[in-house]
Amino acid sequence: MVFCFQLFFLYYLYIPAVAHVKPVYLKYDASCPKGKICSFPYDNLTLVEKGHYELLAGGQAYSIEIVLDMPESERNIDQGMFMIRLDMVSLQGDILQSSRRPAILHYRSPLFKVIYTLFFVPALLLGSLEEKQSFSVSLFEKYVEDCVSF
Question: Is the separation of the CB atoms in 41 and 25 below 8 Å?
Answer without folding.
Answer: no
